[in-house]
Each structure stands twice: as C-alpha cells, then as structure tokens.
Amino acid sequence: MGDNGRVSHWSAPVAAAPVDADVVVPGSKSLTNRALPLAALADGPSRLTGTLRSRDTDLMIGALRSVGARVEGPAGDLHPDDTDLTITPGPLRGGDVECGLAGTVMRFVPPIAALASGPSTFDGDLAARIRPQSTVLDALRALGAEIDGERLPFTVSGTGSLRGGRVEMDASASSQFVSGLLLSAARFDEGVDLVHVGASPVPSGPHIEMTLAMLRESGVTVEQPTPSSWRVAPGPIAAVDRVLEPDLSNATPFLAAAAVTGGTVRVPHWPATTTQPGDAIRDILRAMGASVTLEIADGADHGTLVVVGPSRLSAVHLDLSAVGELTPTVAALCALADGPSRLTGIAHLRGHETDRLAALAAELGAVGCGVTELDDGLEITPAPLRGAPWRAYADHRMATAGAIVGLVVPGVEVDDIGCTSKTLPGFTTMWADMLTGRG
Ligand SMILES: O=C(O)C1=C[C@@H](OP(=O)(O)O)[C@@H](O)[C@H](O)C1
Ligand SMILES: C=C(OP(=O)(O)O)C(=O)O
C-alpha cells in the first residue's frame, strides 16, 4: 500500500526509442530530513531553499511542528508545493509523531522528544513496526531517557533535558541510529560519546559523513576518534540557511533509463562534491559500460551530469555497503547486463522499507531473471525477461526498479506506484516526461 492507504496500479511504459531527456530532480530526502531537525533545535530561525516535499519530509515537518517548531512557507502558512521554508524553533514540548515508513523520522525524532518537556507518542505504518528501532531507544535510555516500548508504537517521556554522555550501541542494522543521536547530541547536558560495538561495521558511511558535515556547518563540535566512535560536545546548534542539493539517489532511476535504452539523460545541478551516496552511481554506471560526464564550469560548485548508455551493459561485482540505498536501481541494471553480477555488503537492506533482498529476488525472479539471495547480498544472472506483475511492497525504490525493467520488458505491471511519494511524489509525470523528451 502507498501512503494514506492509496494503492495505484501502473503499467510501466516501454521506451519506444532510446531516451533523450533533461531531468530536474527535487531536493534530497536525507539532506532535508537532517536540515529540518537541526533547524528545529537551533538557536534561531533558519531558511531552507530547495527542500524536498514528499511523504517522508512532510512527516518530518509534522513531527517537528508537533513537538513545538514553527515551519512556514514564503506566504506564512505551509502549502504542499512550498520548497522555501522558514523554521522557527520553539520550546520543545511533547507531541504525537507519525512516522509513516520513514526511517529518518523513526530514528532522528526520538532524541528530540527526549529533550521535550512532556510525553511524545510515536507510531507509523504497519511495515514500519518491523523496522529495526530498539537500538536508538536503548541508547537513549542509557543516556537518561524514559521510554516505553521497543519498536513502533512507543512513548518517549521527555523531561525537558537529557543527561547524555557515553553510550555503546550496535549500529550494524542502520547508520540512522548513529545519525539520529548525533543530530541532537549537542543539546544533551553532556553531549554524547558514542561507540559502535557491532560485529559488522556501520553501513552507509556517506550518510554519517553527511550528518557530521551538517553538524559542523551548524557550529557543533563533533569528532570521530576512531572509525566507529563519535563525540559531540554540548553547546548551541547555530541556525543556518541552507540550499539543499537535488536527491542524487532519486536521480538514479532516470540515469538508469539512459543506461538500459542506450539513450542520454542529463541531470542539472549535480553537485561537484557531496556527501550524498547517490554520487556513487557515476562510478557504477561507468563500470557497467555507460559514458558518464559531469559537465561543470571551472570553479562552479555544480554542473550537469550526462549519462549515455552503452549498447550492452556489463555485469559487475560490487560491495554496496556504503551506498545500500542504490541497490534496487543497480539490481535492475544487473538484470539487464551481459552476465552474472554480485552485489554484496547489504545484509542490512532486510530492515529497509521492506526486506529488499527478498523483494528484489522475488520480483526480478518473476520477470524471468535468475536471482540468488546471499547472506549479505544478491547474485543476479540475466536471462530473457518477460512481463509480469511487479510488487512494490510499499517501497519507493522497489517501484522505481520495476519502472527501469519495464522500459525494455513489455508488460511489467507495478502494483503500487503511489508509494514513490515517499520521496518523489512527481515520479510518474517525470518518467512520462523523460520518455517524451519533455523532461
Ligand atoms: O540517514 C539517512 O538519510 C539514510 C541512511 C541510510 O540508512 P541505512 O543505514 O539504514 O541503510 C539510507 O539507506 C537511507 O535511505 C537514508
Ligand atoms: C532506506 C530508505 O529509507 P529510510 O530513510 O526510510 O530508511 C531509502 O530511502 O532507501
């Protein structure tokens, strides 16, 4: 099911010709859902430009309003299309937090609620109730918070402050446990001294780098004494006006469209340097045989990424642990490559919006591809593909993976394209525009 119980069936369009399109991608989910809580905890009002408006980011806005922040568009009230926002912090009070299926809301907001003066209740989609959650709640308890529950639904009984200090956690299931604590930690009495103690490293390293970089922009002192420990000093979080980059992970299905049709897709405003994991798609597409160029003026901080697809995609062996978010796009590409591919380092995808390893194995299998689920990834053996129903499991990236396959395989029927609203509400229009060259 998509958001609000809405399910929308979609026959994935086949590309009648190689795509040739410019695709403007809205703001980054991960940047937006860090900028918003940092602004709500800051020492004054902040302005965000290029904010993503989608289910996940609107849930973050709702959560922060519920615990006391003011979030306004240019005209004062907030309209669904407003992307230039002003966030004014207020005294933190308890509220009702709806998390939907957003990992960032589930993991980033409880530490804020622990700082509020009053209880906050958290709930979300049924699928969110089985996503890993207790790590961040246990860490908050160890830092002095009172919390009732282990997973959604749960209640954080804020008392107006949190002691903070040293805490150990096993964050091998999600980098968001680390990011969530670090984002609020400057407001804990003693800051935080956080150590990851799991058997496997924390996944999604670029997302932690993103957290550290944004904290530093906000004037917070944060150190990383070892690869798996972080220290945030107590102190104010400065209000910062930010211009948010486009969501590079959301750009990947469109770039993949160029790759699988032998066409060309150009994405403007591609940052010259970024902490977004989606930037890794450049190397991945190159390894698969595409031509990838970042056209950028001397000294400019962004340019246009141009991807031109090859006549046949090459198979790849990739460790995606740092960029697991890209797996559904990459798996769809691998299903159309010239030989077997292996994607590893992504056991933690079993706790994403759905168990993405099982979901990709099932849906790629249903269209005729050979897929073996590994302990920590997928082995994908291409075969002639045929149309079939494609289940999205309420997962935006499963839905877009179906769209990629459907470009070259007639009859791919995605059961719930509406779930793309999690991070890209305009997906079907953007996809249609790309196919008609109007993108
Ligand atoms: O902090 C973030 O914004 C994210 C971190 C990653 O989570 P995991 O470390 O759980 O994979 C990523 O997959 C998710 O889409 C967004
Ligand atoms: C894993 C993802 O989302 P979330 O932020 O809900 O964890 C994702 O967008 O790929």
TrEMBL record:
Listed EC numbers: 2.5.1.19
Pathway, per record: Metabolic intermediate biosynthesis; chorismate biosynthesis; chorismate from D-erythrose 4-phosphate and phosphoenolpyruvate: step 6/7
Annotated catalysed reactions: 3-phosphoshikimate + phosphoenolpyruvate = 5-O-(1-carboxyvinyl)-3-phosphoshikimate + phosphate
InterPro entries the record matches: Enolpyruvate_Tfrase_dom (IPR001986), Enolpyruvate_Tfrase_sf (IPR036968), EPSP_synthase (IPR006264), EPSP_synthase_CS (IPR023193), RNA3'P_cycl/enolpyr_Trfase_a/b (IPR013792)
Location of this chain's protein in the cell: Cytoplasm
Residues engaged in binding 3-phosphoshikimate: K29, S30, R34, S174, S175, Q176, S204, E325, H352
UniProt binding sites for phosphoenolpyruvate: K29, G103, R131, Q176, R356, R397, K422
CC terms in the record's Gene Ontology section: cytoplasm
Superkingdom field: Bacteria
Task performed by this protein: Catalyzes the transfer of the enolpyruvyl moiety of phosphoenolpyruvate (PEP) to the 5-hydroxyl of shikimate-3-phosphate (S3P) to produce enolpyruvyl shikimate-3-phosphate and inorganic phosphate.
Subunit structure: Monomer.
HAMAP family reported for this sequence: EPSP_synth (MF_00210)
Protein name as catalogued: 3-phosphoshikimate 1-carboxyvinyltransferase
Lineage start: Bacteria, Bacillati, Actinomycetota, Actinomycetes, Mycobacteriales
